[in-house]
Each structure stands twice: as structure tokens, then as C-alpha cells.
Amino acid sequence: MHVDITEFPHVWMDFTHDAGQTTDEVLEVYTDLLAGGEPFVFLGEGGDFEGDNTAQDVADRKKISLWMKRNKRTITALVRAMIYIEPNVSKRIAARAFALVYEKFWGYPMFVAANRDEAMAIVRTVLFFGQEADLEFDAPQSSV
Asked: Could you report the per-residue pLDDT of 61-80, keeping only the tens digit for each?
């Protein structure tokens, strides 16, 4: 995976990026995003919802889960949504099924779009929702 924050508050996640970041590097980027205290959305492409079960994948999922639990309050205060872009209809159906599990785990909604235009329409709807609310949050805790 590769996380690109250059278009903040749109945070792009490329799940197919060959020169991807390690789990620790991704969690450090997430920690920095939360420390900024500004609402944002994730936009993702290229995921595989069948998943792997190698020992490394299991260890990474455990590390992510522990980080998420330490930062849950801040995550739910600042992350407005994950918008996943999937042009393939059958993969989009699988992604929508996965979205229910995703939302329960992360505490914010996951939407599935067919293309970037559709994704950006969703972004406009969710990004500033609740911005007027008092966004008190806990300081994020690094994973490393």
C-alpha cells in the first residue's frame, strides 16, 4: 500500500503500489494525519477483498488493530469516510459487502464508487459534514 497526503484533505491510498510503505510507515502517516486535527477522507483504489492469511498479514492486521484501538476516538472525530473506487461491477459488489465490516471496525463509513468523478461527489457530501461540531479529540498514539 502507498498513502499519498499531497492532496489533503483527500488522502489517497493505492493498494497496488509496488513500492509500498510498510505497515509501520503507514501507521506513522496516519498518526501524523490525526495529530493535524483537521477532518479528512480516505480515497482508495486497487484493493483485494479476498485477503491473504500469511503470517506477515496476520501480524500486520494485529498491529493495525492495536493502533486503531489506541486512536479510536480521534479517528472517529476526524476521518469522515473511506471512499473506495472500483470500476469492476463484481468487485464493487464485493467491496460494498466488505464496507459493513470496515465501518464496524474503523468507526466511519466506507462508500464504494465506480470512478473518480463519483468518488469526488461523495467526498463533497461527507467531508464537511459535522465540521461545525466541537472536534475535541485525544492526541494520537504512534504504533512504533
From this structure: 899 999 999 999 999 999 99
pLDDT band, residue 50 (cuts 50/70/90): low
Neighbour order of strands in the sheet with 40-45:
2-7, 10-14, 40-45, 79-85, 110-113
Instruction: Yes or no: say if 3 and 46 are a contact pair by the CB < 8 Å rule.
Output: no
E-assigned strand segments in 33-107 = 40-45, 79-85
Q: What is the DSSP letter of 14?
A: E
Distance (Å, whole) CA 47 – CA 35: 26
Question: CA distances (Å), 22 to each of 25, 75, 86, 121, in order?
Answer: 5, 20, 24, 31
109 contacts: CB under 8 Å, gap ≥ 6: 81, 82, 99, 103, 126
CA distances from 124 to 2, 29, 45, 120, 135 (A): 23, 23, 18, 6, 19
